[in-house]
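User: structure tokens for this one?
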Amino acid sequence: MPSLRLSDPAQEGKFSVSKWLKHQVLLDVAEMEELCRHLAPFAFYNVSEITSLDDLQLPLEQFLKSYQEYIDILKAGKIPLDRRLQRHLSCALSSDENALYAHAVSEKFMAKPIKPLVQMQQHRFFPSKTAGTINPMVMSRESVHWGVQLSYPQIFFDGANGVYSKVSDEQLFPNTALFTKCVKWLRSNTVPTTFLWEDKRISTPLRLGKECFSWIHHHLQLKEQGITVHVY
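Assistant:
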């Protein structure tokens, strides 16, 4: 597995992005495997921890193993609280290894981007009984585990040149094509989720893989809140 090139912020300049597009989705294991095959070639990167140089890239097999553990816990009617799983589901995807570099921090390293990456984060939503709404990406004790959030910025600031630009040029920003490919797959292979809660139908943009229909009723946090999922 190749290592990232070594550099530092003084050489690379300030990195800044904004106006994120975000998609939240819960996939079954086979669906996540299919999505990864569809997006190949790409790699997962650890962008949230200071670690060894070799551990800045997360092997696909390791990611899928952690995702399987996460789904198995949900299927068993339990809550996935393992911090290791949370770390592996919070990473970045890139089809171009030159979009990042390794920055030395003492005797370890941290992966830092120089071009936009597809961000993956473990996702939870908060069901508000008062408002009758489902609120994505809220991390509270009452929040419900719901797969991952995939996001990508629309605006990039090139610190080396001091220029703001849109990320639509796929030659300059190779991960734009990666994110577009991901979104198209999600729209074709998953459905928007409708929740049934206290005689209300709540339509949401949260996506659900069709292979989850057979087991989603085992989701402990949904049962505790009295929430069911409308299965198509």
